[in-house]
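Lab meeting notes turned into a lecture example. A postdoc, R.K., suggested we walk through two folding results consecutively so the class can see how the record format repeats. The first protein's sequence and structure tokens come next.
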Amino acid sequence: MSRPSQAVVTLPSAVLAALIQLGDHLSTARLRRSESLRDWATRLNVSVPTLMRMEKGDPKVGMGVYATALWLAGFEEGLRHLANPANDAQALAHELRILKRPKRNVHD
């Protein structure tokens, strides 16, 4: 049996909580559409156990499965906005700090 990736084993608790919430949201979306586990698993091209793991927020389920589930639920537009550089407040603040630094004279 293979060992789990260190990236999965050492997930920050906030990331794991977000995946659990995403899985719950996707489960709710499926249920609100009266879709069975089997039907959605077929549409996602995964097994029912994999779909069940995704709906529990399992970080070992591939990002593509989560992304396709978002698409099935009609939420793919949200994927386009994830990690948008225009919304990266931390990087923008860093760039402003760099711009505000006093210029060094090349002759000093």
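The second example is placed directly after the first for contrast:
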Amino acid sequence: MRNLNSPSLTLSRDALRDGMTRAGWPPASIADAELALVELIVNAWRHGGTTSPVVLILFLADTLRVTVSDRSPSLPEQQPLSVLAESGRGLQLVAGLTHRWGVDPQHLGKSVWFELQLDGAA
């Protein structure tokens, strides 16, 4: 697994935090989005075998959409909770921090995404 202080992870987190701050998002939402982003990038490294996943950050009205793409065709699945498991909680974390998430198969690999809505947005 890559280092959590890698330049690609740091740049992605900084870009996300900067964009959300400029768009007026509250600090709690920024923290949730950062944690979800880190989880998707780490999953791309660990399970997708992609050292440099592509990160796309979009602001669509009151909705933030973050997409992390890797080269693995294997689609992620949310695992049932187990107190003895050493891993497998990442997508549950993403689901708990965001309004919705999903995966889109691509020609080469897949894109895993999440969306957050600004408080008060439908």
